[in-house]
Amino acid sequence: MTTMKYNKAQELLELIQQFVEADTWQESKQIVTANPQLLSENVEHLFYFLIEANEAEHNNKQLLYRSRTKGIETAFTTIPPKVKLAGILRELNKPDNVRSMSQRITLCQQALTYVSKTDEPKLWAELQAELGNSYADNLSHNKAEALGSLNGIFSNAILKKVQTQ
């Protein structure tokens, strides 16, 4: 079973490579038409992973260059904004749960300090939307938690009232 999954993943990577290396739009269209599996969300996630890996490789090259030209201590004490942003985005892409909404809000706010609305409008809008959704989810969670606490308080109060009568 594992070998079969590996083979499918390898085939998908090869298709993605064919698509990326296509010389013309028509060739790209033919590849997508012949391979509808390229339209799956898994492929989209794989693209994000490949892009992130490429950015990490670029950041590592820059780090080695700075280490060579400015010294190791200087290179490693100054973290470039793009590296900070990449780390924040990686955290935001992890599956979330309701308990971490306040952390997600903080991460979105931090990420927005590195993203310009004019230079990266799509990313800026996605972060704004995520921030809004996180605020809404945080409010819902807090309300549910408060209602649960109130329910417990009232239940205890009613039980004591009944016991005293």
Your description of this structure?
This protein is mainly alpha-helical. The chain folds into three domains: 1-39; 41-78; 81-165. The protein is built from seven helices and no strands. The N and C termini lie far apart (66 Å).
Task: Briefly characterize the structure.
The chain is mostly helical and 165 residues long. It contains 7 helices and no strands. The chain has 3 domains: 1-39; 41-78; 81-165.
What characteristics describe this protein?
165 residues, mainly alpha, 3 domains
Rg over alpha carbons = 24 Å
Please write the string of helix (H) and strand (E) elements.
Answer: HHHHHHH
The share of residues in helices is: over 70%
Measured between the Cα atoms of the first and last residue, the distance is: 66 Å
Largest sheet: none
Based on helices, strands and strand pairing, what is the structural class? mainly alpha
Which word captures the global form? Answer: globular
Number of helices: 7
**How many E strands?**
0
Overall number of structural domains: 3
Poorly predicted regions are none
Mean pLDDT: 76
List the helices and strands and how they pair.
Elements: H1 2-20, H2 25-34, H3 41-70, H4 72-77, H5 81-93, H6 101-112, H7 121-164
Helix pairs in contact: 1-2, 5-6, 6-7
